[in-house]
What we know:
Blueprint: E1 2-8, H1 12-23, E2 28-31, E3 46-48, H2 49-54, E4 64-66, E5 68-72, E6 78-82, E7 88-90, H3 93-106, E8 110-112, E9 115-122, E10 137-143, E11 146-157, H4 164-168, E12 177-185, E13 194-199, E14 207-213, E15 216-223, H5 232-242, H6 246-249, E16 256-263, E17 271-272, E18 275-277, H7 293-313, H8 318-347, H9 351-361, H10 364-373, H11 380-388, H12 390-402
Parallel strand pairs: 1-2, 1-11, 2-8, 5-13, 11-18
Antiparallel strand pairs: 3-7, 4-7, 5-6, 9-10, 10-11, 12-15, 12-16, 13-14, 14-15, 17-18
Helix pairs in contact: 1-3, 1-7, 7-8, 9-12, 10-11
Amino acid sequence: MDYDVVVVGAGPAGCLAAKYAAKNGAKTLIIEEHASIGSPVQCAGLLSTRAIRECEVVLDSGFHPIKGAFVYAPDRRRICISGGEIKAYVVDRRIFDRTLAENAVRSGADILMRTRAVGIDIDMETRGHGHGHGRRRILHVAIEGEPDVIEADIVIGADGVQSRIAQWAGLDTPETALSGAQISTVYDFDDPEFVEIFPGSCAPGFFAWAIPHHGSARIGLAVRPGFGSGSAWAHLKRLIAEYPVVSEKCDPGITGIALGGIPISVPQQTAAEGLLIIGDAAGQVKPTSGGGVYPGAVCAKIAGKIAADAVLEGNTSAGRLSEYDKLWRARIGRELVIGRRVNEWMARLSDSEINRLVGVLDDDELLDLITRYGDMDHPSVVVRKLLMNRKSMGAFLKMALMR
């Protein structure tokens, strides 16, 4: 098999990269190790309206609308953050991912299922074509268990937080990753158009969530390495059984379990000779929420076009592909840096400090500010507004000085 671009992984980022590589003239293949796209599910499925637009997916009745969030302090004090309009949708990731795969196929990409990448080499005998800059990649795969080889000018790694493609190419994988666990069950929401958020020691280093979806719920949390003890799954079981609010609303029956890792840091390089990494493999995830679909989509589309252009130019060198690194960091790099700082600050707050913080934010002026400037995909905007506000700034300084 011989392709211009091979994308490893058929998640949203992989499918969008393939779509953009194909529509820009590259002969493109997606390989996916599982037998079904979108499975196993490793995502809460809460996507901002901007993320859905970026993925170029049309809204339908299966998308559950979300207008805001209730944030609970450990002492059960609650604040309501609402924009009055739909801010996000909860989607079925199996259907969503398959739609993206179908869109990639319509743009000209091929897909091979049950195909696992097992190694990658550089063809030492070829020197590319056109200008002759860059050597071809040889991707070793197992197709339904049978060994095979796929040759490509460029391989795009969209194979997750522990990307083997990145490791084989000598690129770093994300340094920091959260451990996440989630169940599907029945939950008594006060308002089915609001998610519920629980920061604090119930989810050390991050937060827990309850997300409605057409009469059912996704209850989950993530924990940060080095914060607290026990696995994410152990913390989730404790949350359901013992934590106030959640234990009172949650049905003990579980209809699904999802476990996974969430990267919250980016490697220094995401491009090498004949190779790019995208999505979770490149740490392109919002550190404040753990959401990766929007930043992954932005970067995947850049990667797909850069890959196609580089192949058509006959220059797949590391220098040519480093343009991808520059372009995606220019688009979302600043947001990821600020998000990481916010995440690190929040991760170190004790329950009593979170209680005080929620108490400060339980103010009409500040809640109005959060409502007007809050943005799931660009949190730096509301952070800057809060830091400029005398009420919230005073509280933040006091908390910092007391630590």
